[in-house]
Amino acid sequence: MKILVGYDGSNSAKEAMRVAKKYARAFGASVEVVTSMERGTENQQKEIESAEQGLAWAESVFSDAGIECRSHLLIRGVDAGEDIVQFAEENKVEQIVVGVKRRSKVGKLLMGSTAQYVILKARCPVVSVK
Fold first, then answer.
1. What are the pLDDT digits (tens) for 64-93?
2. Which domain holds residue 76?
């Protein structure tokens, strides 16, 4: 079994990692930790480095627990939700775990919601974590 965790460094993403680790142990699954950035130009170099460091940390959390894990920084020019769903399909992921940030309805309308997109569009089961 293969589990995907969407990771952006937030507390909800860290909680999603905790849940994914629990599921991976229970099902003997491997984990794919994914961070998505829409752009990766020279202007975003600090953000890219920060994302890479976060992914290295996330990968070490799973590796230290004896769980097979690979991390991926996706810079493919699409929104994070779309990127996660595409990656899951391309890599035959069987479950996605995403953190849900509390946001008002107006905030979701204006800013969109990565988790909402993933929950609605993914072809595999999605676990959302607060």
1. 999 999 999 999 889 999 999 999 999 999
2. 2-129
